[in-house]
Amino acid sequence: MPSHKDMNARLAFRLPMDVAESWRTAARAAGLSISDWVRAQVRVDGQDAVITHKPSPQKVPKRREHVPVDPALVRAVATAGNNLNQIARRLNRGESIRHGDIFLMLVETEKRLQEILDQCTSSS
Questions:
Q1: The pLDDT of residue 1 is above 60
Q2: Separation CA 17–CA 20 (nearest Å)
């Protein structure tokens, strides 16, 4: 059987919800993580797979803290974003745009974003 360090291939699959729940129940009853329980059900080259005894990772939903934002700031950033989208749209359509025009639009957008940043940092 390959050593534990040689076993680095991952496999993911989908199964019916009731089967997944029965596997979770069986893993809890065996005192194993679901990963170790599934590994225990598999044999590789006639030998049991490696059991790690590592706990299952728990996904904790991340809650973002609500930060009040000045609506004028949101509009200003949206305007700058719209300018960038217009540049991208024209380039993706294959429209003929002079490099100097693109550079000018990008410089203007950068200046506007810097002004917005300066206003935000000076008022806080």
A1: no
A2: 5
